[in-house]
UniProtKB/TrEMBL annotation, chain A:
This is LuxR family transcriptional regulator, maltose regulon positive regulatory protein. CDD domains: LuxR_C_like. The keyword Methyltransferase does not apply. GO terms for biological process: regulation of DNA-templated transcription. PANTHER family: DNA-BINDING TRANSCRIPTIONAL ACTIVATOR DEVR_DOSR. Residues 822-887 form the HTH luxR-type domain. Pfam families: GerE, TPR_MalT, WHD_MalT. It comes from Geodermatophilus obscurus. Coiled coil: none annotated. The keyword Membrane does not apply. SUPFAM superfamilies: C-terminal effector domain of the bipartite response regulators, P-loop containing nucleoside triphosphate hydrolases, TPR-like. GO terms for molecular function: DNA binding. Keywords: DNA-binding, Transcription, Transcription regulation.
From TrEMBL, chain B:
It comes from the Bacteria. This is Uncharacterized protein. Residues 75-96 are annotated as: Disordered. Residues 87-96 have a biased composition (Basic and acidic residues).
Amino acid sequence: MVPRSRLHERLGRLDESSLAVVSAPAGFGKTTLLTEWLASLPAQQRSVAWLSLDQRDNDPALFWTYLVAALRTAAPEMGAGTLALLESTPSSLDAVLTTLANDLSGISGDLVLVLDDYHVIEAREVHDGMAFLVEHLPPQVHLVIAGRADPALPLARLRGRGDLVEVRAADLRFTADEAAAYLNGSMGLTLTTGDVAALEERTEGWIAALQLAALSMQGRDDPADFLAGFAGDDRYIIDYLTEEVLQRQPAQVRDFLLRTSILSRLTGPLCDAVTGRDGGQAMLATLDRGNLFLVPLDDHRRWYRYHHLFADVLRVHLQAEQPDDVGGLHQRAGDWYEAIGDPAEAIHHALAGGDVTRAADLVESALPALQQGRQEATLRGWLEALPDEVIRVRPVLSVGYAGALMVRGEVEGVEARLRDAERWLTTTTTTASGQRSPASPAEMVVVDQAGFRRLPSAIAMYRAGAALLSGDGAGTISHARAALDLAAVDDHLGRGGAAGLLGLAYWARGDLDAGHRWYADAAASLEKAGHLSDVAGCALGLADIRIAQGRLREAMSTCERVLQMVSPETGPARRGAADMHVAIAGVLLERGDLEAARRHLATSTDLGEHAGMPQNPYRWRVATARLREAEGDVDGALALLDEAERRYVGDYFPQVRPVPALRARVHARQGRWADALAWAEERGLSAGDDLDHLREFEHLTLVRVLVARFAAEGDERCISGAVRLLERLLPAAEQGGRTGSVLDALVVRALAEQARHDLPAALVALRRALTLAEPQGYVRVFADEGRPMAVLLRAAAAGTVTGYARRILAALAPGADSAPVLVGLVEPLSARELDVLRLLGSDLDGPDIARELFVSVNTVRTHTKNIYAKLGVTNRRAAVRRGEELDLLARPRDHRPEHAGTPDR
Amino acid sequence: MTKQPTVGPSDSSRYEIRLAGHLDSRWAAWFDGMTLTRADDGSTVLTGAALDQAALHGLLRKVRDLGLPLLAVTHIDPDPPHTSTRRPADPSKDAT
């Protein structure tokens, strides 16, 4: 071993930097340097995570899984969330990376993460992810990237701010002293200073070359001949020296080296299978002892690989000397891997050996596992490596290809693949015995029979998905229905997928009842299939539809039921739990319970990104923006909406409440009608547009903008256009059962009439709205409108619907709704606690109270505990008695105190 | 201004790749059947069929993996007089 303290010192500077790059060609001792440097560090000082990369890691799913697994060897407590995220479906890389960066910042003590052979990574997505990670590395985590090429990272910027340690070929090459220490010390040669200088010059300090030269000279009486021949030769130095070394090996060793050179990793039984001989493990041990370029891959010396440079030269020799054997070697390696259940390596060898038929067989068998494991990039790589004519005669593989395209939202090419598969299905005839037999059996190939039986349904489902992506609602519906008809009764995943597409298509065209029915079907099938996170995804849609129908209570109960499903009693919440909390917060907000909404939004954040589905980052921001606006923080709300727009992920959902429209509403309410109008122009909206369910929310927003403009400018044309549009929107929403839109339209109608000083007309619209809204407990749809609405409500409150209108008024003026200050209480009860206390005085039990208040039983329990503490009691009866003494049990609707401290009784 | 041979991102073109050191002809298969010519100055020149950009980069990666110093990559102009008179089409003219 040659001490390399100068390089160790340089790597030591990593303490103050986030990244070290070790860049040099193969054979410059990069890996050895890093291993020795890390071994030289005091063990307790630093933990090390090491990941050696290979070609397969170009699949981002695999890359991040292995990276986290490596980190967990050093810091077992980290990464559980990231791994859960990687295993769940469908994972968003953004979420994986943010979670990973968070996990890393939680590590105590210094950690070095080494990524070796990083040059094999070509996938753009992995490079982008690494760039993000480098920018977000916490100070205690140090990254080392070693490889034959500089990594595609912003190195110049890091270098500029002194945040980069570099070790390059010129640093790694052996100096004359190091060469002498190596040759005469480690390798036990007795070379003169002149010999060493000659070798150093010819090899230019290339360590692999010096190593090969030393091996060639070991056991020679006189190295002078060798040196003379070597120094005077122009040949590629590694080739020349490998030949020298090979010539000096016994025939058996030489043959072993050549034949096993096709393997990327070596172990005894595998070598035996490939060479057709015994004693592979003993041979590996011998090569290891003889320093013949074997790199052990585990502590037990069971798995090895050849040094890359040496393996390349061996492969060229094998190809030149035994060209006809190469295919057979790969075939035997593939057989061995298939037998031990490693399809990835088996496929690699089948492809390398040119046996595409076999490779296709293996890919087809591996298809279900790959799809479940979300290894789309790997699957794509294999499918692209297979000749088209091989895929086209395999219907299962053709449909798998279509699926791999669809996963990435690519519609192009999908139909052609589906047709390739369908060709075989339509030429299939049914024989008398009822057994299916293809018309031309010699041509079609099916390996996965179960997959083949699912094809008719799968083809129709992918067609439906492609139709939905291209906005063809009718096509989506007809294909999805066909998929459902064709799916087997127990194909829950297939049935769930088809029903879900139907639900989305009906929802998109405004048929909410049908949309809800199919989506509920989809959720039930997915629950049967055990895909609980996908059930949560469906619940989002179901709740959205119920809210559009003005059925807040049902939206709430759907989300609460699914929340329980994805929140196991022990262990972390499943994916989708965070989404359910956000959806619940949305309903609570609508009902004016800001306090509870705030809590659910905080819980969603606490659960972490891995508990959220792809839509959650944007949905959380939309809900929080609404909360901020209700609290009076308009700028905060606008900033959150901007973020929500950037993070918008539709995930096949119809865009029924576009974020820019939400922002335009905030603008309109703030009197910034010019900003809002700019939005309408950009969207090409006008009061004379044809109606379309997908634009309903935008049209209702446009009306608000026009009313705001009229209020500011008094332009009569604006308001008449707005009212005419409303007169068309309202019946359309009523007909479609979209009570949410009806309410929205009535509220804006009231505002419009008020703006043109027709108070009676305004009150007619408002009273209708209040009547519709009261059973569901709507608050914010009115309260969000601020002062103009307050004026109207006061007028309305003088009439018949007083109690409810007063409650909304209370929400309109922050502070007016706070709990009364009561003598005898150290800390007053909150409004919510007062509600609970009143119900404690009734006959209702806990679950009934929870239902009455639209909260979970646990929430009621928490309120009850706080009430007992504040009242200084220990049971329900005592609480009610104390409440009566303090006059806290006034009935909420009739005797709601409007002003703190003046309960009106 | 010197005239550059025009190679578009999807064009295939012939290249000459010069490496330091003599490569035995058995490496021809490694380099996907390129012809290896050993020059007197100790370098090796790889020539062969037209390559598109992806194939060229794949080839250069193989060179890198062997640790062979790369001396030059030269684009071989298939028909110099012809290309020198060719001008890129003016899209604004098609539009009218």
